[in-house]
Design brief:
The chain is of the alpha/beta class. Helix content is 23%, strand content 26%. The protein contains 15 helices and 36 strands. Helix 2 (25-34) packs parallel to helix 6 (144-154), helix 5 (105-116) crosses helix 6 (144-154) and helix 9 runs parallel beside helix 14 (528-546). Mean pLDDT is 89; it is low at 170-202. It binds adenosine monophosphate (AMP) and magnesium ion. The site of magnesium ion has 6 residues, from loops. Residues 410, 412, 414-415, 427, 429-431, 476-480, 482, 485, 525-528 line the site of adenosine monophosphate (AMP).
């Protein structure tokens, strides 16, 4: 029966993984496989996935486990290349062996015979071969020549082996009873804890019991995040945005904005009163027919011995050099209908320029209105007065850096959409509403990317799609040590690049950061509080850096503790409420928000600050006493 077999290729090489060498075997194997045709001249093999890992047991195992986790999506064949020799770092056979449900020494003999027929050096390869679930796994040597020779030796029987391992009946070969095949392939009992799509392989018992990812400090992690965000921000070209476009709110200016017109654009009265010639002094004056009102058009001339009625903001008539306010005058005569003032007495003397705003005295033409790097109408900042200033200076558009685009998705088979019926063991998705709101209230737009199940294919597709359109992708769940936690291995292989997978902090230890070309990916833990805290510590600063904020890091403030707090072994970001100083005190005070369990979202919902607590080993005593002055990161307004 013609069949298209799916193949995954895993390149095991420290140097290729570090970018120090180019992989030759992968492309050579792909070419060889592509050239294999069945009797109908159709291709037999399709290489669906490739990945590169260093010569590290856990990373090799994680990748193979990821690929073979779902029965439906697992490839028919996994080829590894590299790490089969005698040098101390060559551990591929040792990494792969425990993952095999059944070994296939016959395939090893064929590979060795094929290799030895070309060169005695083939004896220095230590391949293993076997079956995991229904996937055949072969470990080929790392050299292009060795890898292709070994595979060539197996090609004549490979399609048949793949077909048999799928449990298919092939007319031209001995029939394998389906029952015998499925029973014997799973020596370890079926896993009942894997969220409904149980995998038949021996995987879960052999999963790593220590995380393979290096633990780094919060400050190291933040530095890595900001380095990548700043580098990505530098590549963005600024855009002209019209005044009145909401996109201006929260954007950062890409150039000095200079006043197109002076403010005020004419000599303007500061008060309601009479425009005068100051040298004429106090006395009685006839009120000339010219009445200056704001917007009155062509300016009249003030003749000697007369004064002109003028209102606040109106242009001062030609010939006048000061304004006397109405409070410093007396009416002498009025018209019979009292509609016109005919004569008015000026009571005191005025200096030239009194009560007149000079042209450009608020803002000179060409002066810098707002400087490059200015953060427009930042939340709680200028509150719109900056845009008013821009409008008054005659500017119609500004050159700004656009804010980054962000998407948020939740991963987890147990998650249920709001409004859907919930079954035992299911959980309502609390993370998306939390993170979307937190991002939006920090002044950024966020796109809802929905819920994605814990399935390698679904996650991979979701990540690929998201990074294509967005500057930042934030996910929650699937980064811990459980067997359904698939995101880390995915982000550790090309085209993704993982920069850290563990941070010394509580909550949020499994926080993971990766990039894919210029897109930033934050894979946050599933526990709602962990996700919300990690968002504040890493994602919000990254968004600010991407938006070209001059200082993307949330500043620390000092607060006095209202009660004792026991320290944790990890540096802790303790949720707290910060209040204004009590009567007679000058310091802000802080109270914890109760149980700090990372599942208890209430501890975050009632917090306006994260207390930055040292780990117990960093501090002289295991508890911080009431009255202790601690650092805090404000995440909401002071109570
Ligand atoms: P994980 O990080 O996927 O191992 O999840 C850790 C815990 O957080 C589990 O109890 C999950 O059910 C829970 N969790 C994960 N994602 C969410 C979510 N979006 N909303 C609420 N709880 C979640
Ligand atoms: Mg999960």
């Amino acid at each position: 029966m013609p069949e298209l077999y799916r193949v995954a290729i895993l390149i095991v090489s420290d140097r290729v993984s570090a970018g120090e060498a180019e992989d030759g075997s992968g492309p050579a194997l792909q070419k060889l496989l592509k050239a294999q045709l069945d009797s109908d001249k159709k291709i037999l093999f399709e290489v669906t996935t490739t990945a590169v890992v260093p010569d590290e047991t856990l990373q090799i195992q994680e990748m193979i486990k990821l690929w073979t986790r779902s029965e439906d999506e697992a490839p028919n064949l996994i080829l590894t290349t590299g790490g089969t020799g005698f040098s101390p770092r060559d551990i591929t056979p040792e990494a792969v062996s425990p993952l095999l449900d059944r070994e296939a020494p016959g395939l090893v003999i064929s590979m060795m015979t094929g290799g030895l027929s070309k060169t005695p050096l083939a004896a220095l390869s230590r391949p293993v071969a076997g079956v995991r679930g229904s996937t055949v796994i072969l470990t080929l040597p790392g050299s292009t020549k060795g890898a292709t020779e070994n595979l060539l030796a197996l090609l004549p029987i490979l399609p048949h082996a793949l077909s048999l391992s799928k449990g298919e009946v092939n007319k031209s070969h001995p029939v394998i009873p389906a029952a015998a095949s499925s029973a014997s392939s799973h020596p370890i009992p079926r896993d009942t804890c894997s969220h409904g799509h149980a995998k038949k392989s021996a995987g879960v018992a052999l999963r790593p019991r220590a995380s393979p990812y290096k633990m780094i400090s919060v400050s190291e992690a933040l530095e890595l995040v900001l380095d990548h965000a700043i580098a990505a921000a530098k590549k963005k070209t600024p855009e002209k945005v019209k005044l009145g476009d909401p996109a201006l709110l929260g954007a950062v200016l890409a150039e000095n904005s200079t006043a197109a017109e002076p403010v005020p654009a004419y000599l303007a009265s500061i008060v309601d009163g009479y425009a005068v010639r100051s040298r004429e002094g106090p006395g009685e004056y006839s009120v000339s027919s010219c009445v200056s009102l704001a917007g009155a058009g062509e300016l009249p001339e003030l003749h000697e011995g007369t004064i002109a009625r003028i209102s606040t903001g109106a242009p001062v008539p030609k010939g006048a050099d000061a304004v006397v306010m109405i409070e410093d005058t007396q009416l002498v005569t009025a018209s019979a209908d009292n509609q016109h003032e005919l004569a008015v007495r000026i009571l005191g003397s005025v200096e030239p320029g009194d009560n007149i705003r000079a042209i450009g005295c608020d803002l000179a033409q060409g002066a810098v209105v707002l400087p490059k790097g200015y953060h427009i109408s930042a939340t709680g900042g200028a509150l719109g007065a900056d845009l008013g200033l821009i409008a008054s200076s005659g500017l119609q558009e500004l050159l700004v850096y656009r804010k980054p685009t962000v998407g948020v998705l939740s991963s987890g088979n147990e998650l249920v959409e709001l409004g859907d019926a919930i079954r035992p063991g299911q959980v309502r998705d609390a993370n998306r509403p939390t993170l979307l709101a937190a991002i939006r209230s920090a002044g950024f737009e966020a796109v809802d990317l929905g819920i994605v199940p814990d399935m390698p294919g679904a996650l991979e597709t979701a990540f690929h799609r998201a990074v294509k359109d967005l500057d930042v992708v934030v996910t929650t769940g699937g980064v811990s040590m459980g067997e359904a936690d698939l995101i880390k291995p995915l982000l550790a292989s090309p085209p993704f690049k993982m920069h850290f997978g563990r941070v010394a902090m509580k909550p949020g230890k499994p926080t993971t950061f990766a990039t894919c070309s210029d897109s930033l990916i934050f894979a946050l833990p599933g526990n709602p509080v962990s996700a919300a805290v990690a968002l504040q510590l890493f994602v919000i600063p990254a968004l600010k850096a991407l938006a070209n904020h001059v200082n993307p890091i949330t500043p620390h403030i000092q607060v006095k503790l209202l009660h004792d707090i026991a320290l944790d072994a990890r540096p802790e970001y303790h949720r707290a409420t910060v209040f204004s100083p009590p009567p007679g005190e000058s310091m802000l005070v802080a109270r914890g928000t109760g149980s700090q369990a990372s599942s208890r979202l209430m501890s975050m919902a009632s917090a306006n600050a994260l207390l930055v607590l040292p780990s117990s080993s960093e501090h002289s005593s295991p508890t911080l006493p009431a009255g202790y002055i601690a650092h805090a990161i404000m995440i909401g307004p002071i109570q």
